[in-house]
Design brief:
3-stranded antiparallel sheet, alpha+beta, 32% strand, 7 helices
Length: 265
Amino acid sequence: MNEKNFDYLKDQVKYTGFGEALEGELRQNIEQQQATFSLKHDTFYGDDKVSAELHFKKSDQTDLYFFNSYKVTLQKEGRPESLEQTFYINRGNNITLKEAYNLMEGRAVNKNLTNKEGQEYNAWVQLDFKDADANGNFRQKHYHENYGYDLEAVVSRHPIKELDNPSHKDDLLNSLKKGNRQSATFIKDGQEVKQYIEATPQFKTLTIYDADQRRLDTRQAKEQQQSQSSETSKKQDIKAKQSNGEEDGPGEQQEKKQRRKAQKL
């Protein structure tokens, strides 16, 4: 058995999100020198069951094996029908299992991709559930950098507490880029309120949910954004007045008036 090939595949499986539990089966199948083989992996995200079948194939010319793709079946609690999608393995650009789940939930994932010429580019990826290929696989929609979706700028329009801490802000943005529905602390009327947000590149905005993960309508989301803009404007006005001396206390204002009178005399 080619140990280097096994180590490469082992790491590839691990970092695509399947962990180390499949190492034994992977080794066993390679030692048996089968032309093709599959490994199965089950996990849960909340109450949603995600089953994956990983596909491997041996080279026709050498003893090398390749991890070509994995098929995901998403079974949501309370729904009789399941959803299936195959994700293909590309060097350095793999969709991880959690990202695959997020895509199948309808969310967008930010990835560095490589075109046919080998050039790397960044794009938001989202499944188009209205468009499937001949194999029943949903096609991917790509929103490239020139599409104009600036996640950081969009998030910054909302009164989110985590934005005040650089480390928490980075964690928030990175989670959204992976397609997660991420919890965030909104400041409403001086109170902290837990809500959830998703990146929505197609409409260059965020999708916002309440603490029970019920989606807020567009009007509510706009009201929150306008409230934040109003608070920001007030703070800026206060700072401007303070710099001009307009926000001094009564004693300080009286003292300044007296000084101005003395200067005129």
